[in-house]
Amino acid sequence: RGEDPSDAAAELFTQSDALADLYNLVHLLEKQQRWEKLAPYSGQLFNREPTLKAAMLRLNCLRQTHASAEEVSAFLDTTIGKIEQSPEIRSERAWAYLAIGKHLQAKYLNDALLAERNDAQDFSLDVNIAIRTGDWERFSVLGAKGWEQRPQLSAGMLLNLARLVGFYNPAASMELAQEA
Q1: What is the pLDDT of residues 45-82, one digit of tens each?
Q2: Please, are residues 47 and 66 in contact by the beta-carbon 8 Å criterion?
Q3: Nearest-5° angle of CA 6, CA 12, CA 17?
Q4: What is the mean pLDDT of the chain?
Q5: pLDDT band of 2, cuts 50, 70, 90
Q6: HSE (CB half, 13 Å, CA atoms) of 172?
Q7: Greater confidence, 177 or 60?
C-alpha cells in the first residue's frame, strides 16, 4: 500500500535484466513523467533495442532533464547506423549541431531537410543558421521563403522574420510584425 510501483519494477529489472522488465519499468516511469529516474533506463533501452521510438524517448528524457547540447548531439550521433535517420532525428541533430557551434554540419543536414519537406522548424533553423553565421546575403532569400510560409509560422518566428526582413524591406517587416 502506498508503494511506488516503479520501485518494484526497478527492483525486478535489476534482478532479471530482462528486456520485458526494462520495457515495463520504462513505461511506468514515462507514464509518471519521472524523467530523472527514467533517463538512464531510456539509454539502456536504446542500447539494447535501437529503434526510432526508443531514440525519441531517450531524446525526450534528455530534453526533460535539461541535458546539454553536447549530450544531445552525442546521443544523436550514436543513432547513425543503428536506426533509420528519420526527418525528426535529422532535424534534432541539426538543431543540436547549431547549439554546439557546428554550423556547417547543421546547415548540411537542414539543407537536405528543406529539399525534402516543407516544415516550419526547418525554416526556423535555416534562419538561425544564417544569423549565427552572418550569411547576410541569405536574408532576402529567407525573407521571401518566410513570406510564403507565414501562415504556418508561430508568432515568435513571425517576429524574428520581421526583424530579418526589416533590413531590406521595412514595409513587409511591419506587415509580418502585425500578423504576429
Answers
A1: 999 999 999 999 999 999 999 999 999 999 999 999 99
A2: no
A3: 120
A4: 91
A5: low
A6: 17
A7: 60
pTM above 0.90, yes or no: no
Q: pLDDT tier at 160 (50, 70, 90 boundaries)?
A: confident
Looking at this protein, which amino acid is placed at residue 104? Answer: L
One-letter-per-residue 3-state SS of the chain: CCCCHHHHHHHHHHHHCCHHHHHHHHHHHHHHCCHHHHHHHHHHHHHHCCCHHHHHHHHHHHHHCCCCHHHHHHHHHHCCCCCCCCHHHHHHHHHHHHHCCCHHHHHHHHHHHHHHCCCHHHHHHHHHHHHHHCCCCHHHHHHHHHHHHHHHCCHHHHHHHHHHHCCCCHHHHHHHHHHC
Distance between CA atoms of residues 91 and 59, nearest Å: 12
CA distance 13 to 170: 61
In the numeric block, the cell 525554416 is attached to 123
Residue type at position 10? A
Q: Which residues contact 114 (CB under 8 A, 6 or more apart)?
A: 122, 123, 126
Residue 35 exposed, middle or buried by CB count within 10 Å (0-12, 13-18, 19+): middle
In this predicted model, which residue has the larger pLDDT, 24 or 154?
A: 24
